[in-house]
Inverse folding.
């Protein structure tokens, strides 16, 4: 029961993340198209199409993650997309192109690309892969209810950390004197 509920919490967290990401990209397609352009990976002719297809795919994956019969497929899609996004970030870091928005901060600018973003995507992809492996075929209604509340709680912590970590405010150790 604990493994089933934990797997559902992870699936629902990924679903929330994918849904929020997809919807925010669709609402600001021009910005997302600019993000894709800045990655300098896709040919210019497909940027408009990609700026629609990727968010719609994220939303479809989110829906699949909450539908028991499609959950494994949603988790596979999430794994692939997270690895793809992480690879795009890593590729640009290797090219020395850090000063750009990753497009992964739900409508806010993320500042610059970092190894932390690559690691975040790796961790999320491993969690999604865990859903592929451990996805419960039949679970009680109570497990679903617990998982929904757990996912919402985890999501708020994740979103709060995302905001705090992308904040321009820098903290210094006590006794360090940095002046602007």
């Amino acid at each position: 029961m604990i493994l089933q509920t934990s797997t559902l919490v992870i699936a629902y967290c990924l679903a929330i993340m994918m849904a929020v990401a997809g919807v925010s990209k669709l609402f600001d397609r021009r910005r997302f198209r600019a993000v894709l352009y800045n990655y300098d990976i896709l040919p210019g002719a497909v940027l408009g199409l990609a700026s629609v297809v990727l968010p719609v795919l994220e939303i479809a994956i989110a829906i699949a993650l909450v539908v028991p019969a499609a959950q494994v497929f949603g988790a596979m899609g999430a794994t692939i997309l997270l690895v793809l996004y992480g690879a795009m970030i890593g590729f640009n870091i290797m090219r020395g192109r850090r000063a750009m928005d990753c497009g992964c901060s739900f409508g806010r600018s993320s500042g610059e690309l970092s190894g932390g973003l690559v690691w975040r995507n790796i961790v999320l992809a491993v969690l999604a892969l865990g859903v592929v492996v451990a996805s419960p075929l039949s679970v009680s209604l109570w497990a679903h209810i617990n998982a929904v509340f757990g996912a919402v709680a985890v999501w708020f912590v994740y979103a709060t950390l995302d905001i705090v970590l992308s904040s321009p405010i820098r903290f210094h150790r006590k006794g360090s004197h940095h002046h602007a």
Q: What stands out?
A: The chain is about 70% helix and 0% strand.
